[in-house]
Amino acid sequence: MDRFADRLAEKIRSGRARLGVVGLGYVGLPLALAAARSGLEVLGFDIDEPKVEGLNRGRSPLAHIDREAIAAARASGGFAATADFARLREMDAIAICVPTPLGPHREPDLSFVEATSRQIARTLRAGQLVVLESTTWPGTTREVVKPILEATGLRSGVDFFLAYSPEREDPGNPRFTTARIPKLVGGDGETARDLAVALYGRFVERVVPVESCEIAEAAKLTENIFRAVNIALVNELKIVFTAMGIDVHRVIDAAATKPFGFMPFRPGPGLGGHCIPIDPFYLTWKAHEVGVRTRFIELAGEINRAMPRWVVERLAEAVDRRYGKGLSRARVLLLGVAYKKNVDDVRESPAFAIWELLEARGAEVAYHDPLVAAIPPTREHRALAGRRSLPLDAPTLAAFDAALVVTDHDAIDWELVAERAPLVVDTRDRLPRRNNVVPA
Predict the structure, then answer these.
(1) Is the model's pLDDT at 131 over the cut of 70?
(2) Is the pLDDT of residue 325 over 90?
(3) Could you give the angle at which helices 213-243 and 295-323 cross, rounded to 10 degrees?
């Protein structure tokens, strides 16, 4: 290693390296807190000034991250937040944890990655390590981030060091926190990889070096494509078995008793979150660029995107059987609008597609979600922004023709729902089967 790498390696070994984390959301904030707990000095960067102010006051912007964890990191002096990106020059290592959404035609949108790279380039100095964590297509680190940083005249692998380490966060999962999830690391050269391995090794239990940035980028996409395809499979099986009068959840329970060759996945009302509905299309786009079709991935996407409509049809059937009327005269209460249980994240939630389909058919729709007090603005569902969660009590349940289980938060009073809702359509297998509970 040369003098820049030697100096940075020594700072990392001694715990004196200062880490900057750009993007303090579902990925960046847990990363920053894990690093701060290890004794590293961490400065978080975000363009959301109210969020920055709240973090510096010890407040958590995310329901699944305890306020106490932030307060403890602030009290120790190991963590602070800022909206002043000029302070990136003070950092020894910088992790990029910004969104990578899809554009209007389901093409990759790297605008946040590119903008962050340009911010870093403005203050880039010799001896810094830059690590991209955002999920993206194979080649992004070298083909997008590296040219932006090298436009400064500094050279990757000589003056600064560039690596890719995909985030693997599972919000709301108490068993696998940031420090316990194995960390893949690929570098633009062995020196960059080794420096990134050393950095993450300070606060992650197991760091796994791989041969290149592209392998690490492709591995993250593969993980999420695996999940998307298998969820599509069980969603399709749900449609088939429902038509046969067979409960798909009991089928999966039975199949899961096999100790090898089977991994249980659970069907639902559709896919949500920032990963599974989006990441597969990053590979689809890149595959088309090299002349290859991804038929399996695209079919899985079609099946998963069709589930909200299938759920609405099941609800319509249940309402017709119970009341002898259509959805145009029905009042429907959605239970849960977050994309998964026990988190407040509504990104890509199937609840919104279901909601709009129901309203298009004339239904009156409201919701209860103990973690989402009001619907935030979203790009695709602007008309729903600002609608507020109703309290969950016996009078509320009695006022609706049907309750539709979309997100099975533990904080919802499911016993009350089962006892007081006149009709429950359950997409999550949360409630025991009874006269007023219909699986969907």
Answers:
(1) yes
(2) yes
(3) 30
